[in-house]
Amino acid sequence: MEGFNVKDKSLLENKEFLQELMERMMLVHTFEERAFWLFGQGLVHGTMHLSIGEEATGVGTSAALTKDDYMLATHRGHGQALGKGVNVNDMMAEILGRATGTNHGKGGSMHICDFDNGILGANGIVGGNGPIACGAGLSIKMQNIPNRVCAAFFGDGASNEGAILESMNLASVWELPVLFILTDNGYGMSTAKAKATKTVDFGKRADAFGFKAFECDGNNVLEVYETVKEAREYVMNEHGPVLVVENTYRTSGHSKSDNNKYRSKEEIKYWEDHSPIIRFREFLVENKIFTNEEVDAMQATVDKKIEDAIEYAKAQPQPVVADLEADVYAE
Ligand SMILES: Cc1ncc(C[n+]2csc(CCOP(=O)(O)OP(=O)(O)O)c2C)c(N)n1
Ligand SMILES: [Mg+2]
């Protein structure tokens, strides 16, 4: 099993923080397993994209951001939103389309929004986060807001979208405080990255636009955290954007249905065995920071939180037709 090369050794003394990282990754994983189960029961409208296998990216990234930093999530954004601190009951209510959900039941899985926690929204348009991140970055800059950045997630598939490439250029020209967070999970739907991209060394993209790239093992939550922290400091000091490449793997299917014909069972099994949660558990236990029993207790706490959230969400009211046009800004 790969080791954890932690730069800031004081992190290892901070048990509260390490527990928070573990419980949050478990929260993402369990939330998704149960949300998918609800989907199977016919209780969820629309579609759903799970990030099982990628838990360290959403959680590790947001652990390095402040509450006020902006974050833009993708269609695979449950872990990104939960990582940034959205209330789990409100998010479950949104998944079930209830009036008290984060988007009053009008958004669902792909549009979780929570301005109080800096979550400007998730986006079903692949690559759509780039231009929005430029807008958010420009607003921070024009208002001279100190110590705030905007982090925009996008995938390896989205990296070839014109909107992303144009946004990287614009953010660089205008020196905007934007972190472009590329979660490279190896595939865009059923297309392996090498079939869609000539050079899969994505960090090199930043060279073309004149800014710095950071890269990390996206299945190592502490490495993700330390890398994004360093990248964020760089943005604050250098006054311009950065690219952060997080190398990970999606063990869940692309969407609600996926017969996995584009990859082997062995490949999926390898990554299931090297999942961020399994690796972090081994790290914590091997280094005698927590016992296996203590980690099991964390999972039990999370299980209860999720079951409570389901019960809460199911008891929430459905939206009413009279509110159809509320919160709709375009005419
Ligand atoms: C502009 C646009 N084109 C195509 C789609 C259909 N689509 C949804 S997810 C997806 C794959 C995106 O791959 P990637 O960016 O790697 O993200 P991942 O799904 O791997 O997290 C595609 C093509 C879309 N939603 N938006
Ligand atoms: Mg991908």
If you had to describe this structure to a student in words, what would you say it looks like?
Its cofactor is thiamine diphosphate. The protein is of the alpha/beta class and 331 residues long. It has one domain: Thiamin diphosphate (ThDP)-binding fold, Pyr/PP domains (Rossmann fold). Helices cover 44% and strands 11% of the residues. The protein has helices spanning 15-40, 55-63, 78-84, 88-95, 129-142, 162-173, 193-196, 204-209, 221-238, 265-273, 276-286, 292-314; strands at 70-73, 119-122, 150-155, 178-184, 187-188, 191-192, 212-217, 242-247. It has a six-stranded parallel β-sheet with strand order 2-1-3-4-8-7, with helices on both faces. The protein has a two-stranded antiparallel sheet with strand order 5-6. Helix 9 links the parallel strand 7 and strand 8 (242-247). Helix 1 crosses helix 2 (55-63), helix 2 packs across helix 9 (221-238) and helix 5 (129-142) runs parallel beside helix 6 (162-173). The model has no long low-confidence stretch (mean pLDDT 96). Bound molecules: thiamine diphosphate (TPP) and magnesium ion. The site of thiamine diphosphate has 15 residues, from strand 5.
